Amino acid sequence: MNVLEVKNLTKQFGGLTATNDITMTVEKNSITAVIGPNGAGKTTFFNMITAVYKPTSGDILLNGHSLVGLKPHEVSKFGITRTFQNIRLFNEQTVIDNVLIGMHQHLKAHWVGTLLRLPSIRLEEEKAKVQAYKILKYVGLEDYVNENAGNLAYGAQRRLEIARAIAARPKVLLLDEPAAGMNPKETKKLTDLIHDMRTRLDVTIVLIEHDMKLVMEISDYIYVLDHGELIAQGKPDEIRNNQRVIEAYLGKVAAEND
Amino acid sequence: MVKEWFHKFSQSSRAQLFFIITYVLVTCLGLYLLEDSASAIFPFLLVLLSLLILYYMKINVKLKWAIGFIIIAVMIPLSASQGSNFQAFMDVGTLVLIYVAMSLGLNIVVGFAGLLDLGFIAFFAVGAYTYGIFGSKQANHFMPFGHYPLPGDTFWIFIFVGAIIAAIFGILLGIPVLRVRGDYLAIVTLGFGEIIRIVFNNMDHPINITNGSMGISQIQPPRIFGYPIDTPSEFYYVALFIFILVIYVVKHLENSKLGRSWKAVRDNEIAAQAMGIPLVKTKLAAFAIGASFSGMMGTVFAAKQMFVDATSFTYLESTMILVMVILGGMGSVPGVILGAAVVIILNNQVLTDLSNWMTSLSTAGILNVPDALSPSKMQRFIFGILLVVFALYRTQGLIPHKNKKVDAERLKREAAAEPPYGNSEAKTNLEGSDS
């Protein structure tokens, strides 16, 4: 069953076509990778799914509902959350508060109720904190609960972004270069985490990544973008040997000499 | 040796309690005895200092609030009540409370939600005019029904009417303004503040609503159970009542879902939206709630002065409130309270007293200070220097903001009692794969 369907998605910035006529389907509970050289339009593609950009044409369907025209926070309510290529944490807030903000849409508290100190809201808040702690423990950040997010090490910040995203209980989780800047050991841990999230959280994962080892290891299906065009798609083994993909990454001449 | 002693002292809540009570009693006695002399300002400041000491004490939080309340509501008025300066002191006290409440309102907008508002005084003006118009004969000019001025008993309702109308103005300002960000937002809010002032200054024709530049006079003093409130010492308690209300609201919202979403929007708009936080709604809530504090204090201001005109709501006033927030520490509630208190007391008490003292010196022929150098004329100069110094050496303000910490040990215990995160059927256990 397809959770996410993208139909003929195009985005133009003035005369520049960032993505052109992209169609893809993402199966439920799969791990799908979107790869391509720098500037291929991968992040633009994510930004359209999460409504940061409005597509010039085309449609995005989540479980059959169109997401085009929604506001970013509405897309999040529909069940898509993401992490960011350039880490976007709430740096001035504690680690646990970052996760609690991820839970925002699942908390029922209203400010009037907060001011009346309704017992239900205090209970909800308590439960949310325990849940946030469990999520932090899951990603291995339970020792930094009260630390400011901005003070964390780079790899820890990336994991906190994932923790914050899964706190929103998404149906589809978009990871934008989750392994960027990580050492091999951290990447290994991340690979395990992504694998585990799929089964444990029953979530569909779409990721953009440059680390080919990671991509080939965990992806069920891969889409390759180059200059805004979808140039190839298929299972990891098919992509590995695809001539056009090799050309896109290494250049035409190099690919021929190989 | 001293360090050791201090450490022991900070561990024992009984010793601290004893210290603060003695301190307050001694300084209050000093204020009581010196009340009539020119140096009454010193014990007055020392009594106020007790609140700052109290803040840094390591004792039970509820006890802290209780002691703080007793100092503000009982000790200060009581020990100052015997002398000739009583009303002057209470007037400063009322002003401090008014500005503290306003800067706490602005702190929500600037400190929590990160929206620079340079026209914040407009909401104060809205509150002031709301009571001013209906609490005087002014409303007769345009209201088709009813007799005005409304009796002073209605003032208590007008506190909340002022809050609501100011909140509505906050939303009205917010809707168009929130399309712009950063510097542009600051400019637009500045414009809004000026527009409100000029509109109030000119709304005497075709329908006379605000009486234009003549201002509204003879505003009814508030009454409670038939007893009129018209001295600063009585207004002090009105302001205190609203101040407590404001503190309650701020303290409860700061670490709630709404407070977190404000700070999320401040720290990173795009990420906040991606987490499901509606940008416009969250920002409007900050504008509305911040404005309502200002509106409430506006009604108190109108009732206290018994006169309102547009000159009280200039751009300078907006800057002043912003200075209080920045000086105290953006986003820090105790900091902002301290910042507002410092600015008002420095302005209205210390500099005035210093000027008077220097005048008396020059009349006695001891020291001849030209009038142009009198301290009360150098307010802006002094604040300018203060701001530069703070911007250079203490950007976080007097009391920097601290994030509220959770009890990690307790969460750990509670989390351990529950099943681990996620579906229980999951086969792999990530926590073990760390090696």
From TrEMBL, chain A:
Q: Does the keyword Lipid biosynthesis apply?
A: no
Which GO MF term does the entry hold, naming one?
A: ATP binding
Outline the extent of the ABC transporter domain.
4-252
Q: From the Swiss-Prot or TrEMBL record, give the protein name.
A: Branched-chain amino acid transport system ATP-binding protein
In terms of PANTHER family, this protein maps to: AMINO ACID ABC TRANSPORTER ATP-BINDING PROTEIN, CONSERVED COMPONENT OF ABC TRANSPORTER FOR NATURAL AMINO ACIDS-RELATED
Keyword Nucleotide-binding in record: yes
Q: Which organism is it from?
A: Sporolactobacillus spathodeae
Keywords for the protein's UniProt record, in alphabetical order: ATP-binding, Nucleotide-binding, Transport
Please give the InterPro entries that the UniProt record associates with this protein.
AAA+_ATPase (IPR003593), ABC_AA/LPS_Transport (IPR051120), ABC_transporter-like_ATP-bd (IPR003439), BCA_ABC_TP_C (IPR032823), P-loop_NTPase (IPR027417)
Which PROSITE patterns does the record associate with it?
ABC_TRANSPORTER_2
Q: Which domain of life is it from?
A: Bacteria
TrEMBL record, chain B:
Polar residues composition-biased segments: 425-435
Entry-linked InterPro entries: ABC_transp_permease, LivM-like
Membrane topology qualifier? Multi-pass membrane protein
> Which CDD domains does this one have?
TM_PBP1_LivM_like
Could you list this entry's UniProt keywords, alphabetically sorted.
Cell membrane, Membrane, Transmembrane, Transmembrane helix
Q: Name one Pfam family in it.
A: BPD_transp_2
Q: Which compartments is it annotated to reside in? A: Cell membrane
PANTHER family attached to this UniProt entry: HIGH-AFFINITY BRANCHED-CHAIN AMINO ACID TRANSPORT PROTEIN BRAE, HIGH-AFFINITY BRANCHED-CHAIN AMINO ACID TRANSPORT SYSTEM PERMEASE
Designated name of the protein = Branched-chain amino acid transport system permease protein
| The species this protein was found in | Sporolactobacillus spathodeae
Lineage of source species: Bacteria, Bacillati, Bacillota, Bacilli, Bacillales
